[in-house]
């Protein structure tokens, strides 16, 4: 575990199917400048941003967790929030557990300085999510795009790749050819946005393949990893946020 990410504190269980299955959720505290870089921290501070909260795969506990973060002012106008999918749920297993996170996105967007997200394979498709914007006009959903933010360039891809040619777009499950074409487009946009060809931050729901690592920091979820949630590959720092909330300050 890197020195700038501290703790592995269990703070909540998600109980599924009447309590027969429990999924633990973890909370971490980390240094904003150490993880996102001194330049990003300085640029953020210049506009009053002193915190970044990042999370993924909180499922049916999302509303409760977000409400608490807003109530305690952890999410406030000095906070940027990053999410990488599966941020809603009914508490049931399988497709019956899928839900629409749009109302929660709205609450976070309204409370925070800015929200940036991609969607997961348990998030019910809502066309309004793609057009939701922050106060500065930037799009909250970074799917298949690259945006300039106070933290640097951010891009990403929704959902997961699945076998076959059809997928289930209403649940962000896409054929591999379509999914990988989006990655190629984001990489092309990253090359246009930076002389290094690297994004500062990339968001995806599923873990990136090696050829999809072209960001200094790649945040994702989907893959359950109770122990190894941080690793480095080439020039990328990779953070698996599945069932985790990170508070960078």
Compact description:
By secondary structure, this protein is an alpha/beta fold. Helix content is 23%, strand content 32%.
Provide keyphrases for this structure:
alpha/beta; 14 strands; 249 residues; globular
Layout: helices, strands, pairs:
Elements (H helix, E strand, L loop, with lengths): L4 E12 L4 E10 L1 H5 L1 H9 L4 E6 L5 H10 L7 E5 L18 H10 L2 E4 L9 H5 L13 E5 L2 E6 L2 E3 L10 E3 H18 L5 E6 L10 E6 L9 E4 L2 E5 L3 E5 L1
Parallel strand pairs: 2-14, 3-4, 4-5, 7-10, 8-9, 10-11, 11-13
Antiparallel strand pairs: 1-2, 3-14, 6-7, 12-13
Q: What's the multimeric state?
A: single chain
Q: Could you tell me the strand content as a percent range?
A: 25-35%
pLDDT < 50 runs, ≥5 residues: none
What can be said about the biggest beta sheet?
6 strands, mixed
SSE string? EEHHEHEHEHEEEEHEEEEE
Distance between the termini: 18 Å
The average pLDDT is 89
Structural class: alpha/beta
- Coarse shape: globular
Gyration radius from CA atoms, angstroms: 17 Å
């Amino acid at each position: 575990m890197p020195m700038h990410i501290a703790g592995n504190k269990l703070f909540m269980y998600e109980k599924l199917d009447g309590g027969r299955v429990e999924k633990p959720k973890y909370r971490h505290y980390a240094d904003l400048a150490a993880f996102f870089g001194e330049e990003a921290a300085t640029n953020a501070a210049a506009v009053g941003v002193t915190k970044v909260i990042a999370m993924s795969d909180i499922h049916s506990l999302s509303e409760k967790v977000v409400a608490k973060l807003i109530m305690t002012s952890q999410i406030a106008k000095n906070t940027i929030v990053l999410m990488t999918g599966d941020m809603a749920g009914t508490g049931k297993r399988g497709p019956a557990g899928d839900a629409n996170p749009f109302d929660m996105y709205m609450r976070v967007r309204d409370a925070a300085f800015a929200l940036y997200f991609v969607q997961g394979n348990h998030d019910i498709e809502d066309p309004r999510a793609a057009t939701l914007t922050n106060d500065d006009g930037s799009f909250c959903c970074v799917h298949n795009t690259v945006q300039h933010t106070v933290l640097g360039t951010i891009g990403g891809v929704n959902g997961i790749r699945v076998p076959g040619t059809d997928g289930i777009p209403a649940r962000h499950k896409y054929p591999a050819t379509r999914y990988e074409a989006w990655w190629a487009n984001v990489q092309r946009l990253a090359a246009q946005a930076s002389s290094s060809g690297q994004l500062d931050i990339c968001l995806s729901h599923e873990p990136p393949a090696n050829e999809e690592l072209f960001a200094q920091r790649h945040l994702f979820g989907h893959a359950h990893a109770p122990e190894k949630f941080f690793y480095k590959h080439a020039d990328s720092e990779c953070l698996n946020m599945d069932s985790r909330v990170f508070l960078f300050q």
